[in-house]
Amino acid sequence: MHEISLCQSILKIIEQQAAQQNFSCVKTVFLEVGRLAGVEPDALRFGFDAVMKGSMVEGARLEIIDVSGLAVCLRCNNRVDMKQRFDACPACGDIPLLIEKGEELRVKELEVE
Amino acid sequence: MCIDCGCSSEHVRVDNETHFCGSRRVSIEMDILASNNHYATINRQFLTEKKIFALNLLSSPGSGKTTLLTQTIYDLKESINITVIEGDQQTANDAERIRAAGVNAVQINTGKGCHLDAQMIGHALKKLQPQDCSLLFIENVGNLVCPAGFDLGEACKVVILSVTEGEDKPLKYPDIFHAADVMIINKIDLLPYIEFDLGRCIEYAKQINPEIEIIQLSASKGDGLDVWCGWIQQQQLLLLKGR
């Protein structure tokens, strides 16, 4: 359940950006979450509402942009749609594969006022 | 949703011309863990400059981390200066156990938090003031999930698994075994009494992390502690020589 502290980091980023980009109220937070990032979207939503209470992000909508996992096998160069970390290569059975996408955990964009 | 600008308000076009909308989109593109990684880099620079060898100890609760740590301190404290950062949700019990072993320790209580982060370590280092060329142990909160994603600025991550936990832990909690440099299999003196497939456990760990170093020991009985302490001394020597 480190989703709470991730939400605290999100709030910190937003508060820093508010001063730089001149906004005082956030209506939507667009978050990129990779499927291999080890984060549970439901727990993130739960933590989000709790952490944002009393801040400029209170009541904002959380829009999670799902990023699917993509990895490459170093033995056979096969590109693999990775469902979970440490899956073996479906072609040659080699592990571990080199993850190219799916570990994202970033605040992409905000809708602000 | 507003059909003109895509904002979440329900704006109505009044005069067919002007769309008034107070909201706008701002691009952020920032990694959520960037702040932790920033503090971790500062810690790593500090530790490297002072040639302090820092180990981040990770495990589930009850694996014998604190016992391993106190035994390691008894074996090494004559030859090297040691300090400890203890992480727990509550109580200062562990830091007291460590101080009783004769070294300086700082307790961090994370409260509701499930892991230590790099900023907490930065504050603890200021309090501890570890000596140059010393050894620093960071005992993380007992948890095999959350600490995996938080770099503290340490030189090595050490994951401790006891034989009473089941050999498939590396498969069940792959992130932490993937992030670790060393896996310690603790409580091996209990092997004759329980069903634990040591070979399988090692195989699973290597499957997740082929580079992982594996040390088997019993912290309470002392078997294998010399191998572990030898490994620490060897790594520390490499650091002092500037590897």
Account of the 3D structure:
The complex is a heterodimer of chains A (113) and B (243). Chain A is built from two helices and six strands; from the N terminus they run αβαβββββ. Chain A has 113 residues and is an alpha+beta fold. Chain A has a single domain (3-112), classed as hypothetical protein PF0899 fold, CATH 3.30.2320. The model of chain A has no long low-confidence stretch (mean pLDDT 91). In chain A, helix 1 (3-21) crosses helix 2. In chain A, 27% of the residues lie in helices and 32% in strands. In chain A, helix 2 (41-52) links the parallel strand 1 and strand 2 (61-67). Chain A has helices at 3-21, 41-52; strands at residues 26-34, 61-67, 69-72, 79-82, 98-101, 105-112. Chain A is elongated, with a radius of gyration of 17 Å. The longest helix of chain A has 19 residues, at 3-21. Chain A has a three-stranded mixed β-sheet with strand order 2-1-6, with helices on one face. In chain A, strands 4-3-5 form a three-stranded antiparallel β-sheet, with no helix packed on it. With 243 residues, chain B is an alpha/beta fold. Chain B is built from eight helices and eight strands, in the order E-H-E-H-E-H-E-H-E-E-H-H-E-H-E-H. In chain B, helix 3 links the parallel strand 3 (82-88) and strand 4 (104-109).
